[in-house]
């Protein structure tokens, strides 16, 4: 999959993705740990959005429209612009808005580029910590330096994560509890930052359900570029359709983890 895009084009577009991250950070850092109005987007549960979410995506989209007007855009806050090319950007201006409004630096701006539907470039931007994770074919970096996942040959010694176990329902909850029971340590509430930490070699498994396309596409090139695995809970190599994402730092965990998550 990663050979679909030539190296020169991938490098140019990854550089542009970093410019988009700069533009988003200029907005989000004006509002982080500041007084900000909060709007709940949902009736059934608390799903907050702020001016930081909306304005950061506006800034990103303006640059894409200026430099690549034929590219498609899928954004959490401002919807879909259809593509007139093979490229589509997928944007989550503040992944982890609950963390953002709580003053916790585990949120991030997610920027992905799909080529013929495949995520080939991804950025996780955490401007408060001054950390920028970039994935493209064959490599992942943190602030320009290569990163790799760590070896972990058994779930019995693995550190795992999910954002909130209360978000699981029914069979998904049962499956995660099996994974939890098989692992050594669990950390919650990290949103996209858990995937960054896994890609850097400090965690081993992240499993989540109920995700939207903009929640996961930016994560996949980073995880894979760092040597990890990113699949759905059924093992599909193109996660997204069923809203599940499984990230593994070591392929040795693949079969045992999928067996535990199988419904």
From TrEMBL:
Signal peptide: none annotated. InterPro entries: His_9_proposed (IPR011809), Inositol_monoP_metal-BS (IPR020583), Inositol_monoP_superfamily (IPR051090), Inositol_monophosphatase-like (IPR000760). Gene3D superfamilies: 3.40.190.80, Fructose-1,6-Bisphosphatase, subunit A, domain 1. Keywords: Amino-acid biosynthesis, Histidine biosynthesis, Hydrolase, Magnesium, Metal-binding. One of its GO terms (biological process) is L-histidine biosynthetic process. GO terms for molecular function: histidinol-phosphatase activity; metal ion binding. Pathway: Amino-acid biosynthesis; L-histidine biosynthesis; L-histidine from 5-phospho-alpha-D-ribose 1-diphosphate: step 8/9. Its cofactor is Mg(2+). The keyword Glycosyltransferase does not apply. Mg(2+) binds at residues 76, 92, 95, 215. Its EC number is 3.1.3.15. It holds the Pfam family Inositol_P. It catalyses: L-histidinol phosphate + H2O = L-histidinol + phosphate. It comes from the Bacteria. Belongs to the inositol monophosphatase superfamily. This is Histidinol-phosphatase. It comes from Kordiimonas sediminis.
């Amino acid at each position: 999959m990663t050979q679909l895009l030539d190296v020169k084009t991938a490098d140019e577009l990854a550089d542009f993705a970093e410019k988009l991250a700069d533009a988003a950070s200029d907005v989000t850092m004006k509002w982080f740990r500041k007084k900000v109005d909060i709007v709940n987007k949902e009736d059934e549960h608390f799903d907050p959005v702020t001016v930081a979410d909306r304005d950061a995506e506006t800034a990103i989209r303006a640059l894409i429209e200026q430099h690549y007007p034929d590219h498609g855009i899928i954004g959490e806050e401002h919807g879909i612009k259809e593509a007139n090319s093979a490229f589509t950007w997928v944007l989550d201006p503040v992944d982890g808005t609950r963390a953002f409004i709580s003053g916790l630096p585990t949120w991030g701006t997610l920027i992905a580029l799909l080529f013929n539907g495949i995520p080939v470039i991804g950025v996780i931007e955490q401007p408060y910590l001054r950390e920028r994770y970039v994935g493209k074919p064959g490599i992942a970096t943190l602030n320009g330096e290569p990163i790799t996942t760590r070896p972990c040959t058994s779930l019995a010694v693995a550190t795992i994560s999910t954002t909130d176990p209360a978000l699981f329902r029914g069979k998904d909850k049962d499956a995660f509890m099996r994974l939890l029971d098989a692992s050594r340590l669990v950390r919650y509430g990290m949103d996209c930052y858990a995937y960054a930490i896994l890609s850097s070699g400090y965690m081993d498994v992240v499993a989540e359900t109920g995700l939207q396309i903009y929640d996961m596409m930016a994560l996949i090139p980073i995880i894979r570029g760092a040597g990890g695995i990113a699949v759905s809970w059924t093992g599909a190599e193109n996660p997204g359709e069923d809203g599940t994402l499984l990230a593994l730092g070591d392929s040795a965990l693949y079969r045992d983890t999928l067996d535990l998550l199988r419904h």
